[in-house]
Amino acid sequence: MGKQLSPASREGARQFPYLRVANVHEGRIDVSDVNTMGFSAAEREVYKLVPGDILLNEGQENLRMVGRSALYQGESGAYCFQNTLIRFRAGAEVIPEYAQAVFVRWRSQGVFAGIAEKTSISHLGGNRFGALLFPVLPISQQRRIVDVIEAMSAQERAIEASIAKLESLNAAVMAELWDLECGSFEEVVVFGPQNGIYKPGSSYGLEGTPIVRIDSFRGGPSDFTRNLLRVSLSRGEVDRYGLATGDVLINRVNTPELVGKSTAVGKLVEPVVFESNMMRCKLLTERAVPAFVETWLGSPTVKRYFRQRAKSAISQASINGSDVRGCPFPKLDVTGQLEFLDRLAMVREQQRLERAELAKLGTLKRGVIDDLLGGTS
């Protein structure tokens, strides 16, 4: 167990960096935000980390995260560690990378959760951890397991690097919009902004017309063909507030961070209406492509604009029709909008494929590790 943080150690001399729970993630240590406390020369000898040490989270609010572990591969003695972590230092009969693979498997199987002391924060405990029976295989077998895991991890890192490059490319494509001359959004709107319908809670039930509410979309592409609440409406109300494919919805009341979140209505399988905390705009199809409008309204430029225009109340902010009409909008014709969307779609489709491949590899890796360690439980 590491050193306990105390008022004396916070203010004491010989301040030295130490690692805590926030620094230890599954399979990696993040030293971008490291705290310091006082360590004497003797304490630094006891609590210093050396390459090959494994740190495990001793306590977590989430029981399944207890025992989350990572291998320390930094400079010897560069950091100490707090008592919110447990250090495992392998003996001569155990390869550290093999031990960490065992700990990852134990956490995924619920071994650590099963022995943890369960309070408001679940604690693994040094003694309970130390009492676990550790599977000591021959070194040659440990090395084979480590080599297989490392080979698959190298593939994961390569895909992650590719995803990071694609994210940079995505940002570069989006940046094409920032230098465009802008007019106002009202120039591409044929109808609206129109506020949605308000109905009391008693009007909602299992039957009626599906209604888009504040939590029905996150911003960006949405699906209004399922999982919507229903509300009792007259035929006239459905006609007045009914959505059509290509309509743009803009959230007018929300938290300051989410006010103005937007989506373009896609496929509909039955009449759908929208609630009063959002506005609907119908676009001039010869001037604007719904998917482009959706992308633009989700950009940092527009989010910043809506935050500046928002009227604040307690924990909420609101925008009005005038704010939406005056929102900047690029002076880009439909052909240019479609060409931009094509470029963006190519990058995002490749990102989707890479993420799917990473997820598939992760599943395969867990299966291989289970097979390799299957006889060690």
Automatic annotation (TrEMBL):
Keyword DNA-binding: yes
GO MF annotations, alphabetized: endonuclease activity
Keyword field contains tRNA processing: no
Coiled coil residues, start to end: none
Superkingdom as given in the UniProt entry: Bacteria
Keywords: DNA-binding, Endonuclease, Hydrolase, Nuclease, Restriction system
PANTHER family xref list: TYPE I RESTRICTION ENZYME MJAVIII SPECIFICITY SUBUNIT (PTHR30408:SF12), TYPE-1 RESTRICTION ENZYME ECOKI SPECIFICITY PROTEIN (PTHR30408)
Protein name per UniProt: Restriction endonuclease subunit S
Native organism taxonomy: Bacteria, Bacillati, Actinomycetota, Actinomycetes, Kitasatosporales
